[in-house]
Design goal:
Blueprint: E1 6-12, H1 21-35, E2 39-46, E3 60-62, H2 69-82, E4 88-91, H3 97-107, E5 111-115, H4 118-121, H5 127-134, E6 138-141, H6 144-153, E7 161-163, H7 179-184, E8 191-196, H8 208-221, E9 225-230, H9 236-245, E10 252-256, H10 263-269, E11 272-275, H11 284-291, E12 295-299, H12 304-307, E13 315-317, H13 322-334, H14 341-346, H15 352-368
Parallel strand pairs: 1-2, 1-4, 2-3, 4-5, 5-6, 6-7, 8-9, 8-11, 9-10, 11-12, 12-13
Helix pairs in contact: 1-15, 3-5, 8-13
Length: 371
């Protein structure tokens, strides 16, 4: 481990070995943080179970997860007291802010809080949570939308809330449509619409049902079209019933949870990636799809607008306007298969290198100058 520089304790839900967008963000964030000039070592304490990880970035260690709420709090406090001196506590979720703020008060060190979206949109912060957020030296939000919602609910100075958007892995890049997926999904000669996300009842805002409802109209214009809903969860049965209700069950496929190494190929299989959400904090899947050379369509009411650069990198539509959504998907299906390389290049604003450079600036301006 590196020894000079800031020592950071990171309290997160999931990180290395975890699944989902927040876990991916935490991996990108913590990996880049550990490499920042002025940062010594980073100790990560995850809340939830994770797959075993063979290697971590230099300067980092990840402790065993503790799923019990009380057990996690005790483990976090014990770690903080025994690994002193700690210079910064990073908290990766709003609901963990009171614990992180309490540790910061005991140790007299600054708090860095991260907010993503759902925990801000669908959860009214308690008085303790609001006060904890207000003690943070800095808050980073994944989008302007998330930042705006946080400022509406918490009395923190706007200057202390920065936007640090998601990044996209270099494995997502344009390439040929994979034959093995053509065979798996009987997709030869067909147009493929795709959504990738968890299928949770808490994530129904992502808009799978909106796509299913307009599919009959789309099929009138593009009869050789299938809709792949990639991911799994308890909301799958509701979506399957909805596809039956609208008479499109034979056109909707549920591949389930797929191995991470197949995901880039799934994006390349798609002609259009669509997720007309109303409560997305950012939407890393938009970046992954556009980096793979796929046309993307998202909502214009939430953090998706940041990922789509307000329509510069894809279609940003009113998710509740069925005519507008149908027209956008139809236009994308009719567009040339080869995605505009200029748009792929402009998506470079979300590269890991750009993310790491921005993070370095935040560290220098807010923490190392005080160290």
């Amino acid at each position: 481990m590196k020894t000079p520089g800031l020592r950071v304790l990171a309290l997160v839900t999931e990180a290395f070995g975890g699944r989902g967008g927040i876990a991916q963000y935490n991996r990108d964030f913590l990996g880049a943080l550990a490499r920042c000039d002025g940062v010594g070592d980073v100790t990560v304490l995850p809340r939830f179970s994770a797959r075993l990880v063979s290697a971590l970035p230099p300067g980092m260690r990840q402790l065993r997860p503790v799923e019990s709420k009380v057990g996690y709090a005790l483990s976090a406090l014990w770690t903080a007291l025994t690994m002193e001196p700690i210079d910064v506590v990073f908290c990766g979720h709003l609901l963990m802010a009171p614990l992180a703020a309490g540790i910061c008060k005991v140790l007299n060190v600054p708090l860095w809080l991260q907010v993503h979206g759902a925990e801000v949109f669908w959860h009214q912060p308690s008085t303790l949570e609001r006060r904890s957020v207000e003690t943070a030296l800095m808050v980073t939000a994944v989008s302007r939308y998330t930042r705006r919602h946080l400022l509406q609910r918490v009395g923190i100075e706007p200057a202390r809330v920065k936007v640090l958007s998601n990044t996209v892995d270099s494995q997502y890049r344009p390439g040929p449509k994979p034959n093995y997926l053509f065979d798996r999904h009987a997709a030869s000669g067909k147009k493929v619409i795709m959504t990738v996300s968890r299928l949770s009842q808490f994530d129904s805002y992502k808009g799978h049902d909106r796509v299913i409802r307009i599919l009959p109209r789309l099929l009138e214009q593009h009869p050789e079209t299938i809709y792949l809903i990639v991911g799994d969860g308890e909301d799958r049965s509701r979506l399957e019933k909805l596809a039956l209700e609208y008479g499109v069950a034979k056109k909707v496929q549920f591949p389930g949870l797929i191995p991470p190494d197949e995901l880039p190929d799934y994006f390349r299989l798609a002609d259009v990636f669509v997720m007309p959400s109303t409560g997305e904090g950012f939407g890393i899947v938009f970046l992954e799809a556009m980096a793979a050379g796929v046309h993307v369509i998202g909502g214009n009411r939430d953090g998706s607008a940041d990922a789509l650069a307000d329509g510069e990198l894809g279609w940003a539509v009113d998710p509740d306007d069925e005519h507008e959504l149908t027209s956008a998907i139809s236009a994308a299906l009719s567009a040339p298969a080869n995605f505009d390389p200029a748009k792929v290049n402009r998506a470079g604003r979300f590269s890991y290198q750009a993310f790491a450079k921005h993070l370095q600036t935040l560290v220098e301006s807010n923490f190392t100058a005080r160290h």
